Amino acid sequence: MARIPKETVDQIIHTADILEVVGDYVQLKRQGQNYWAC
pLDDT (tens digit, 9 = 90+) per residue, 21-38? Predict the structure, then answer.
């Protein structure tokens, strides 16, 4: 099984907006400073 280089993983982590990625799959609701899946 091929491994993904650490540099590639680090680049994805630094450029991806986790709220946008997760929000594509579940509805997110803001509660205070946090977001909750609905």
Answer: 999 999 999 999 999 999
Q: How many domains does the chain have?
A: 1
Residue 1 counted as domain residue: no
Name the β-bridge partners of 31.
Answer: 34
Secondary structure in 3-state letters for the chain: CCCCCHHHHHHHHHHCCHHHHHHCCCCEEEECCEEEEC
The domain of 30 spans 6-37
CA pair distance 18, 26, nearest whole angstrom? 12
